[in-house]
Design goal:
By secondary structure, this protein is of the alpha+beta class. It has one domain. The protein has 1 helix and 3 strands; from the N terminus they run E-E-E-H. A hairpin with a 2-residue loop joins strand 2 and strand 3. The protein is elongated and about 40 Å long.
Length: 55
């Protein structure tokens, strides 16, 4: 199963910072847009895995 979420990414100085509105706890950062996106995707994955363990 594959999920799709919104990723909002902005540049602050040298860093890209992103977050996912559907999962407020998820955020990521990186020196490139791709690094930020990958970091955010990993954060979303970890949060969803944690939520599944609780249920």
């Amino acid at each position: 199963m594959q999920n799709e979420f919104t990723a909002l990414i902005e540049k602050y100085g040298e860093w890209y910072v992103g977050f996912c509105p559907e999962i407020p706890e998820a955020n990521g950062q990186g020196l490139t847009r791709e690094d930020c996106q990958q970091n955010l995707a990993e954060a979303v994955k970890l949060i969803l895995e944690d939520r599944l363990e609780v249920v």
